[in-house]
Automatic annotation (TrEMBL):
This is Cephalosporin-C deacetylase. Its EC number is 3.1.1.41. Residues 120-143 are annotated as: Disordered. It comes from Microbacterium immunditiarum. One of its GO terms (biological process) is polysaccharide metabolic process. Coiled coil: none annotated. One of its GO terms (molecular function) is cephalosporin-C deacetylase activity. SUPFAM superfamilies: alpha/beta-Hydrolases.
């Protein structure tokens, strides 16, 4: 893969001003308020997964419009003290999968909520369990262009509201320390983590890796790959809709949302990433509202970024931030 984006010395200062609607904050305040007003009590039931060292609950919480959203709540078995916690959002097209698939955060001492993405889970992985009952106007194949000409109908308006409600749900659990709740995700999950940190004032840390949906005026059409290619296909048919489309997208652009996020943040990007170009990740990073932020660069990687190597970096960073010991405790007290 040849280099196609800005060199590192320019990325470090790249801070584009993306057009932001006058009602941006009011739009998201209304969206979150409506989601919370429609909420019902979260439900939990013990999973039948054959796991001896962790407890797993199948969680149903209310998202956008009061719609049920599914998640796995996982933590070390027998731990009685409130745990630091992490809410994890998943990549484009996959669902929460099986309860046994993503155990790295619980075995590192965290309670973990693995959140389904509404309407997704049928492109890769082991499936999802959350439908999206809301329709939309004509759209290109995929999810990004659903409702793209009206901000109220945007698919990611619903997804980001779900993310806020996921944090709300995590804060309700007795097993969780409410002062130490982080959000994380890769790719689409990274974009959702940015939104959750921007829209929820009790997020204590954010760990977005290879986030998509950032600096959309630049990255749409930059490589022709990934979810932003859906916008190109849409515009190629709906000629003349460019201004309406990019105005709607500005409400979900990670660079605009990042300005509202103040929690400490650990970002990551691959410099050969054609799905989430590094200039998009740096646009969100350089606009981040909090002063405590770090970018981890992977100069020779594409969308896979640091993979397992980066998770070690994330775990070490978050354990230090949350005042946890150098290694997970051996006891369950």
């Amino acid at each position: 893969m040849p280099r196609f984006d800005l060199p590192l010395e320019l990325l470090r200062s790249y801070r584009p001003e993306i057009a932001e609607p006058d009602d941006f904050d009011a739009f998201w305040s209304r969206t979150v308020s409506e989601a919370r007003a429609a909420a019902s009590v979260s439900r939990r039931s013990r999973s039948s997964a054959p796991l001896d060292l962790v407890d797993v609950d199948d969680v149903v919480f209310s998202g956008f419009g009061g719609d049920p959203v599914r998640a796995w709540f996982v933590r070390r078995r027998g731990v009685r003290r409130p745990l630091p916690a992490i809410v994890e959002f998943v990549g484009y097209g996959r669902g929460r999968g099986l309860a046994s698939e993503r155990l790295h955060w619980p075995v590192a001492g965290f309670a973990q909520l693995i959140v389904d993405t509404r309407g997704q889970g049928s492109q890769w992985g082991t499936g999802g369990d959350t439908p999206d009952p809301h329709g939309s106007a004509p759209a290109a194949p995929g999810f990004l262009t659903r409702g793209i000409e009206d901000p109220d109908d945007l698919y990611y308006r619903r997804v980001f509201a779900d993310a806020v409600r996921a944090v709300d749900a995590m804060l309700e659990f007795d097993e969780v320390d409410p002062a130490r709740v982080a959000v994380t995700g890769n790719s689409q999950g990274g974009a959702i983590a940015i939104a959750a940190a921007a829209l929820h004032d009790r997020v204590a840390a954010a760990l977005p890796a290879a986030p998509v949906l950032c600096d959309l005026p630049r990255v749409v059409g930059l490589t022709g790959e990934g979810m932003t290619a859906e916008v190109v296909r849409y515009l190629s048919v709906h000629r003349g809709s460019h201004e309406r489309v990019f105005r709607a997208l500005s409400y979900i652009d990670g660079a605009n949302l990042a300005k509202r996020a103040t929690a400490p943040a650990l970002f990551a990007c691959g410099h050969l990433d054609t799905i989430a170009p590094p200039s998009g990740a740096y646009a969100a990073f350089n606009h981040w509202g909090g002063a405590d932020r770090t970018m981890v660069d992977y100069p020779w990687n594409e969308h896979e970024g640091g993979e397992g190597v980066h998770w070690v970096r994330q775990a070490e960073w978050l354990r230090a931030l949350f005042g946890m010991p150098d290694r997970p405790a051996d006891d369950a007290a």
